[in-house]
Amino acid sequence: MSLHRKEKEKVVTGLKEGLGRACGTFLVDYQGLNVEALTKLRRELREADIEFQVVKNRLLLIASQGTETAVLKDYIGGPCALAITYDDVVMPAKVLTKFSQDHEALEIKIGQIQGKIVELPAIRRLARLPSREVLLSQLLFSLSSGPTSFIRTLCEIPRRLVNVLEAIKGQKA
Question: According to CATH, what is the number of the domain 2-129?
């Protein structure tokens, strides 16, 4: 009996450490998914660097105390699994939303990002965002377009002056 308790304590400790580092967590109801679909979901999440765990609700409640995931305590009930992300909060929303469209048995219950509850409509909007790399490249393009236009304008002044001088030279010759 004490070994069983020690295993639970180990699970809670590991989960609490993970939830303490997490920048976002998503609760999903996986009931109705067969083993093949659940394995596929785990693989897709793992490829996106997202941790996916099926944990007993009581252990999840204990582990989430003192972390940002504690805001989800009212939604923890029934069979649920937890998708944990440590850096990119858009990727879990993308993977889970796409997977739930392909497999109706997967239901996204709720999420939290940095201690703020994110409901299903917001998760779906989040999933439609471009990836982090695309957003960064768009930002870089926007930041560089202003100085580039300014430099083009500055270079245009001497070029026009040279054109005017060439025209005057052509008229006098």
Answer: 3.30.70.1730
Does this model's pTM top 0.70?
Answer: yes
Domain boundaries, the chain: 2-129, 130-173
Tell me how far the alpha carbon of residue 156 is from its chain's centroid: 44
Q: Do 60 and 67 form a contact (C-beta atoms < 8 A)?
A: no
Count of CB atoms within 10 A of residue 114's CB?
Answer: 10
pLDDT of the chain along its 173 residues, tens only? Answer: 455 888 888 989 999 999 999 999 999 999 889 999 999 999 999 999 999 999 899 999 999 998 999 999 999 988 889 999 998 888 999 999 999 999 999 999 999 999 899 999 999 999 998 877 888 898 888 888 888 788 888 888 888 888 888 889 889 87
